[in-house]
Amino acid sequence: MIESYNTITEKSIGEYREKGSKFIAYAHHVKEEEEIKELLEFYRAEHHKARHWCYAYRLDNEGKLFRANDDGEPSGTAGKPILGQIDSFELTQIFVVVVRYFGGKKLGASGLINAYKTSTAEALKVAKIIEIKIRSYYEVGFAYERMNDLMRFIKHDELKIINQSYDKQCKLKFSIPVANEQEVLDKVGKLYDVKIEKLYTM
Question: Does the domain formed by 4-131 have CATH 3.30.230.30?
Answer without folding.
Answer: yes
